[in-house]
Amino acid sequence: MEVSPWHDIPLLSGDDIFNLIAEIPKVSNAKMEVAIDEAFTIIKQDTEKGKAPILHLKHFASLIHHILGFFYCVCYNIHWNYGLLPQTWENPSFANSKVEGALGDKDPVDVVEIGERERKIGEVLKVKPLGALAMIDEGELDSKIVAISVDDPKASLVNYVNDIEKHFTVISLLPNYLITSFISLLLFIL
Asked: Which reaction does it catalyse (predicted)?
């Protein structure tokens, strides 16, 4: 029996605990993602102009611009696990006034999992959300939830976004990029 990671895995895994589908493992640079237009929404290598891209800081250009004040583009391995929340969708008909009225990108909601373990593509993790970042990618809202796996050794130490800086290397972002009610300061892991 084939299962769609996006449609068949439940979003919730308990009180305030969500399922995360890992797409890009920590220390990787292959841009993997759920193919939302294919049967069973398989996870596969993304393509740009017919080629398989590697991750560049350009994929996080607006984030880097606001942190460093300039655009910087180099190849790198990401320092977190990256994935999606199943059964979610960035609504293209909802204009979010907190992010310049941007409409959703029609993709599942993305998650940056900050734990110390490297995960496998397709692995389902139970995560607790710590905060969120609203990013605009090619004019569309592309939210990122910052979370930690409940089985991570530091999970019991990190319950709010403010706890992250005590246990991880972080860069602070401006408060006007906050889009969730459960955080007061957004810290993004690099």
From this structure: diphosphate + H2O = 2 phosphate + H(+)
pLDDT in tens, 1-30: 788 888 899 999 989 999 999 998 888 777
Nearest to 28 by CA among 89, 85, 80: 80
Neighbours of 176 (CB within 10 A): 11
What region does 101 belong to: left with phi over 0, alpha with psi -120 to 50, or beta? left
pTM of the model as a whole? 0.74
Read off φ and ψ for residue 164, nearest 5 degrees.
-60, -45
Domain of residue 162 covers 12-189
* Model confidence pLDDT, tens digit, residues 50-69: 555 554 444 444 444 444 44
**Distance in angstroms (rounded) separating the CA atoms of residues 23 and 123:** 8
Q: Is residue 5 part of a domain?
A: no
